[in-house]
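Data card: per-record layout.
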Amino acid sequence: MRRPPPSDGASADGPLAIVCGGGSLPLAVADAVRRRGRDVLLFPVRGFAGPEVERFPCHWVALGQLGRIFRRARAAGCRDVVFIGALVRPSLAQLRFDWMTIRALPRLVRAFRGGDDHLLAGVARVFEDEGFRLVGAHEVAPDLLLPEGVLGRRHPAERDRGDIAHALALLAATGPFDVGQAAVVADRHVLAIEAAEGTDRMLERITALRQEGRIRAGAGIGVLVKAPKPGQDRRFDLPSIGPPTVTGVARAGLAGLAAVAGATVVAEPEEVARRAEAEGVFVVGLPARGAGA
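The structure for this 293-residue chain is written out next.
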């Protein structure tokens, strides 16, 4: 049975609960929400989130401690919850079950039998059945969304635009299989598709392939393209970029990166633009129309 929303005075304007993994995105979202005048309460996941989250009110949790999250969030008057940050998909054996998680175990087992989107949707339903509302980072921190056009002064060349179109078509085709949200294409040649390793590790793989002489395209040719999956629930796991992404693109010898505007979260956008200039690569927000968004 679905529980009613918390009855202790919480409302949509109450503190925002942020269940956060690794990386800088949880901090960027928390800062953006605070700038908009809303309090935050972070639930950093042990083994993934870094100690810097402790500059915000927070309660550390282990994977599988749903009951702790629900109790602490209700006590603080939270209704809205955001999932943000990098997590490595766990096995069921890695979860630390509390009583609430044990009760939800049959649903969680079913959620594990699919891709990441399927798993996140299953976890979201558990939160919703407890009276919480899952919202997307783009809803609570819209100023972190990638704008349309270039960040900085560098623009993609004609060859780059062809590679971008090729990568978008590829991602639209693979998206229904819940594979990934990124691909690297050089001269219409697919160099990599993001899978379980994530974008940063994929770029490291491209760097290694160049060093091994396995990539025929010269340095400065090729693009990283990120786009949401067709029909993706945008409350969680939107494509994201940040300064490390720009550095990874440069180290991989690519010309730049492109992502769908309005559907990609950017950590530290000013630093992304500065680093793109320093590394000599472009960063461009693609119009959603015709981008599979």
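Known properties of this structure: The first strand starts at residue 16 and ends at 20. The first helix runs from residue 25 to 35.

See the next section for split statistics.
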